Fold this protein.
Amino acid sequence: MAYPDDSDPTEYDGTREEMDRAIRRLDVLEWLILSFAVLVALLGGAAVAFLLSVGTELPFRATWAVISILLLAVPGLFVFGRELRGNGKRRRAREGREDGPPDSERPERPPT
């Protein structure tokens, strides 16, 4: 098999293993970050639920559950929405389209 740049194929033998190792490390890092976010949401929810249960008649456990879910779900929905918008932009760029119609097809504004 001829290589376009006449390089030696043994030069790239360890590339797949290095990529697999890097992917595994990134997966572990992702799980650590997610675990830390869940822990922070639970602790923050507990702190806010405690303050609300002392000053009001709200039950601690129900308040803690609702606040903890909100602390995880609301930022997660923002990230999910941003990813969806980013995927759409990347798909349009891949297909060779821009966000809007070309300049020649844009309607002109009427004079004000």
User: Anything to note?
Assistant: Residues 23 and 29 are 10 Å apart (CA to CA). DSSP finds two helices and no strands in the chain. The chain has a mean pLDDT of 81.
